[in-house]
Amino acid sequence: MSTQEVIGRTLNQAKGMAGQAFNLAGNTLGFARRHLLTLPHMHVSKSRPGSSPGLTHEDLQNMPVGDQKVSIHCIDYCKDWQQTREIELDDLEAFLSNSRPEGTTVRWINIDGLSNPRVVQKLASKYKLHPLAVEDVFHVPQRPKVETYPQTTDVSARLFLVMQMLYVVDRQLHCEQVSLFLGHNTVLTFQQQPGDIWDPIRERISNDGSRLRVQDASFLVYALLDAVIDHCFPILEMFSTQLEELEEKVMEDADKQIVKKIYRIKRELIMVNRQVWPMREVLRQLQHEDVTSELM
């Protein structure tokens, strides 16, 4: 078999993988939009019997603080208004001790950066996050999953999600873990670093009359999940374009550099599939079992 034939076969394999990834992402997104318009009733896996206690407040207090900047943003909203603010680290404790603005129906607190365990400690104390879930926030990377904790425990945030956010920098695929807690009227999201794909959701919240503004916190979680899956499509479009460009080059002149590029794309398509497929299973779990989120 000639070099050009080998390259052509590899290219066709990569194109087939791209098609599979498109189908998987499309099916997953379609499933989410059909079945997860409300999330207070959802299928989740229970906390594991006999599991280690996770990270306690004392553990978090004793963990070292890293150099990475941590930023905290809060959005409070209801049908008639929304309020966005950035919270300084020194002001976090006072902020959490104050009451929400009167009339708030949903509070979304987003934390960028995991280098300061004291931030997580304060939020875990305020919202009674389960120590096992808190430990998972720092366990990076891991497969997307969903867990809940029984009402018999002293935990307010009973729903916990882990997902992987895919993004591209300089045509290279990267993956960032996002941890999410849901209560009846509060959503907490923890990200590894600044920057995400959720600005369109923030814009929707800022618009009077948007559907997000008249729904509860579970609908915000649906929107965040939807955005993570939907963002796979421009990434897959990018890979398809790259494969088309390589296909043209193969017809002109086959060389080792083209083979390396094709194999790189194949590896990144495998990464897409590895992240999207568990998300599909998470969505299936969210559909099938009945759990009522409690007030945080």
Summarize the structure.
With 296 residues, the protein is α+β, with helices and mostly antiparallel strands. It is built from nine helices and eight strands.
Features:
296 residues; alpha+beta; Beta Polymerase, domain 2; eight-stranded mixed beta sheet; disordered C terminus
Verbal overview:
- With 296 residues, the protein is an alpha+beta fold.
- The protein has a domain at 46-224: Beta Polymerase, domain 2 (2-Layer Sandwich), CATH 3.30.460.
- The protein is 47% helix and 18% strand.
- It contains nine helices and eight strands.
- Strands 1-5-6-7-8-4-2-3 form an eight-stranded mixed sheet, sandwiched between helices.
- A hairpin with a 4-residue loop joins strand 2 (71-77) and strand 3 (82-87).
- Helix 1 packs parallel to helix 9 (256-288).
Ordered list of secondary-structure elements with their pairings:
Elements: H1 3-35, E1 45-46, H2 57-62, E2 71-77, E3 82-87, H3 92-97, E4 106-112, H4 117-127, H5 131-138, E5 145-148, E6 159-169, E7 172-182, E8 186-191, H6 199-206, H7 217-230, H8 232-252, H9 256-288
Parallel strand pairs: 1-5, 4-8
Antiparallel strand pairs: 2-3, 2-4, 5-6, 6-7, 7-8
Helix pairs in contact: 1-7, 1-8, 1-9, 8-9
